[in-house]
Amino acid sequence: MKNSARNLVAMIVLGLGVMAPTRTGPAGPRPYRDLSAQWWQWATSIPTPDNPLTDTTGENCMVGQRGDVWFLAGAAFGGEVTRSCTVPENKKIFFPIVNILAWNSPNVCGQDSENLSVDELFEGIHPFIEGITDAYATVDGRLVRHERRVRSDAFEITVPEENLFDAFCPENVPAGIYSPSVDEGIYVLLPRLSPGEHTIVINAENSDAGFDLHITYKLNVEPVLLE
Questions:
Q1: Residues near 162 by Cβ (< 8 Å), separated by ≥ 6?
Q2: Which residues fall within 8 angstroms of residue 76, CB to CB, at 6 or more apart?
Q3: pLDDT digit string (tens) for 24-66?
């Protein structure tokens, strides 16, 4: 992959892997691959002031949520974050333990005018995931053991004028549609949690990249009346 074509990609780091795909194409269970793309489309579509990834309290955890799966955000800049979030009881919960995005953006964010292929995008992000250590996620003090390693299919992202990439790139990133985009990461899909208080803790680090992260989610699962 040409140095001049490398992107400084957004990283949301959260945990632990179980499968190490050696090929550059998609890998992992289809539902997780689909949800990983949807997670990024959700995360990158929200303007920075309201984005759950830059939220330090949890006040934005409801922004952009829809459908029968509720997304939890990581932290775009790492560090230690505690968030409080209210979730409806009829939602599954999906979040990255570790993930990283690569996106094709000719003449934007340090990329030259040539398009990057899906294989080139995967080549640029794989080493970060391989370098993750001391990673785990717990739900109510119990270690999560059903995480899945994922390499997504190619997808597109649509970003607003004020977007997450502005903080990572030499210049502001114009609003628009960028493709192809790809994701590599490890994800958790939790079943619907019972009403009441729950705590999710997520921890990971990549010492080579100077990245460490510790997130605590204090979830209040609210009953939902449908009749």
A1: 47, 48, 49
A2: 10, 11, 12, 51, 53, 54, 164, 167
A3: 567 888 899 999 999 999 999 999 999 999 999 999 999 999 9
